[in-house]
């Protein structure tokens, strides 16, 4: 299985926001433009997904929707509370493992520090590896058997600027 982990794009800052809840903050116009370019790069690199799972927070959902639209896979997008900042990595992994048929390529869209902690958990078995996921950054992990612990290999971790250069 390949797990692709995408941090949401540039969003409205919390301090300068008229949004009362963090979960309501949307992508900025610049964030949307950059994500379209990232999605274009995914398409050009022939990276496809069997399933897209996103946090319900507006900025993450918008990020996932842009990728789904660009790759024409709207029906493969689902929303899950397990990808919120307070979500459970254990429940996320159980959810992925229960999926029938088992997915080969999964895109997870969410937030920091949750995503970095998930990457560390899957490659090291703990939260001790420091991973920096930029907004719009993308990581690829591969695993033979997804477990809540050390089970995956880091294939690559790209900053959004690097991804955009591939478009």
Describe this structure in words.
This protein is α/β, with parallel strands linked by helices and 167 residues long. Strands 3-2-4-1-5-6 form a six-stranded mixed beta sheet, with helices on both faces. α1 packs parallel to α2. The longest helix is centred in the first third of the chain and has 16 residues.
How is the secondary structure organized here?
Elements lengths: L1 E6 L21 H16 L6 E4 L3 H13 L6 E3 L9 H10 L6 E6 L3 H11 L13 E5 L10 E6 L1 H6 L2
Helix pairs in contact: 1-2
For CATH, the homologous superfamily is named as Phosphoglycerate mutase-like
Element pattern in H and E? EHEHEHEHEEH
Shape: globular
Low-confidence stretches: none
How many angstroms does the end-to-end distance come to? 25 Å
Overall mean pLDDT score? 95
For the biggest β-sheet, the strand order reads 3-2-4-1-5-6
Radius of gyration: 15 Å
* Share in β-strands: 15-25%
Number of helices: 5
Query: How would you classify the helix and strand content by structural class?
Result: alpha/beta
DSSP E strands, number? 6
CATH topology grouping:
Rossmann fold
CATH top level is Alpha Beta
Q: Main β-sheet, in a few words?
A: 6 strands, mixed
Fraction of helical residues: 25-40%
CATH-level-2 architecture: 3-Layer(aba) Sandwich
Number of domains: 1
Which structural traits does this protein have?
single chain, 167 residues, alpha/beta, Rossmann fold, 6-stranded mixed β-sheet, 18% strand, globular
Provide a short characterization of the protein structure.
This protein has 167 residues and is α/β, with parallel strands linked by helices.
């Amino acid at each position: 299985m390949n797990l692709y982990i995408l941090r949401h794009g540039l969003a409205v800052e919390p301090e300068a926001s008229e949004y009362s809840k963090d979960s309501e903050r949307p992508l900025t116009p610049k964030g949307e433009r950059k994500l379209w370019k990232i999605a274009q790069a995914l398409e050009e690199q022939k990276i496809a997904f069997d399933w897209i799972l996103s946090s319900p927070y507006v900025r993450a959902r918008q990020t996932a929707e842009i990728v789904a639209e660009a790759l024409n896979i709207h029906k493969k997008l689902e929303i899950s509370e397990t990808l919120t900042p307070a979500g459970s990595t254990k429940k996320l992994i159980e959810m992925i493992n229960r999926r029938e048929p088992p997915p080969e390529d999964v895109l997870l869209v969410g937030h920091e520090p949750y995503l970095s902690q998930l990457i560390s958990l899957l490659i090291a078995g703990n939260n001790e590896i420091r991973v920096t996921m930029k907004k719009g950054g993308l990581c690829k992990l591969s695993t033979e058997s997804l477990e809540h612990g050390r089970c995956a290999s880091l294939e690559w971790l790209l900053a959004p600027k690097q991804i955009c250069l591939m478009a």
